[in-house]
Design brief:
Oligomer: single chain
Helix content: 25-40%
Radius of gyration: 32 Å
Order of helices and strands: HEEEHEHEEEHH
Distance between the termini: 80 Å
Number of strands: 7
């Protein structure tokens, strides 16, 4: 092989290697670019989801009011809000449970004082929505502090109430409902956190089954409030 042919061969090989390197660089740039685009898209999707979730579960619409606690009375009380969010209340509290008929305001407010969330709904709410509401109530938060009942003349189809806080909802599937429960059930504004929302002195009847209890002649018959030993969590929280 002559020197000229050998030189030509070396130059040809150099060109082939240079072209191969250019292809490898283009492939690497493309791969890195595609990978970066995928990362950007994923970050964007996650960010969009978090922003969307935060917006959907925002509790900015919660109204708040200040009420003095410990105001026990025996008479019927006229409340400012519907349903009430605090104020005077009966000496007896309502057993936290799901009721199919209205309860006395005065018992419900006492349960709020103990840390309960009281979910009320219009009596004419379709059964499918009532079932959906009960499903949320029985799968979220502490069941020992969950009170559910129909309530006439509500300002919205569903209203979630804790002591000093209230949220009006149009749909029981609204994601703000479980968010409200998790934030305000036995929350920092609870006047008597941990006080029992059941027990032998709790009222288990609805408003149509029994009137407000009369004031006892013997003060020793006034119900004694005790601390709940261990609030029961929903099945979802136990997992």
């Amino acid at each position: 092989m002559t020197k000229e042919k050998a030189q030509a061969r070396r130059e040809h090989l150099q060109k082939m290697r240079a072209e191969q390197k250019r292809k490898e660089r283009r492939t690497a740039v493309f791969m890195w670019g595609a990978g970066g685009l995928v990362i950007v898209l994923l970050v964007g999707l996650v960010g969009f989801y978090l922003v969307k979730q935060a917006r959907e579960t925002s509790l900015d619409a919660v109204s708040s009011a200040k009420y003095e606690a410990g105001q026990h009375v025996w008479n019927q009380v006229t409340y400012k809000e519907t349903p009430p969010v605090g104020g005077q209340h009966n000496n007896y509290w309502q057993q936290c449970a799901v009721y199919d008929k209205p309860i006395h305001n005065e018992h419900g407010v006492h349960s709020l004082e103990h840390g309960a969330v009281w979910i009320t709904y219009r009596p004419d709410l379709p059964k499918q929505q009532v079932d959906a509401l009960k499903a949320v109530a029985t799968s979220t938060g502490q069941q020992d502090y969950m009170l559910v009942s129909p309530y006439p003349n509500l300002p919205s189809p569903v209203v979630a109430t804790a002591w000093g806080h209230q949220l009006k909802l149009d749909n029981p599937d609204d994601p703000r409902l479980p968010a409200f429960i998790k934030k305000f059930q036995n929350g920092p504004d609870t006047p008597e956190p941990g006080a029992i929302c059941g027990g032998p002195d709790a009222i288990t009847t609805t408003a149509d089954q029994a009137p407000l209890p009369p004031e006892p002649k013997n003060q020793s018959q006034v119900p004694m409030e005790t601390i709940s030993p261990s609030p029961t969590q929903s099945p979802a929280q136990k997992k």
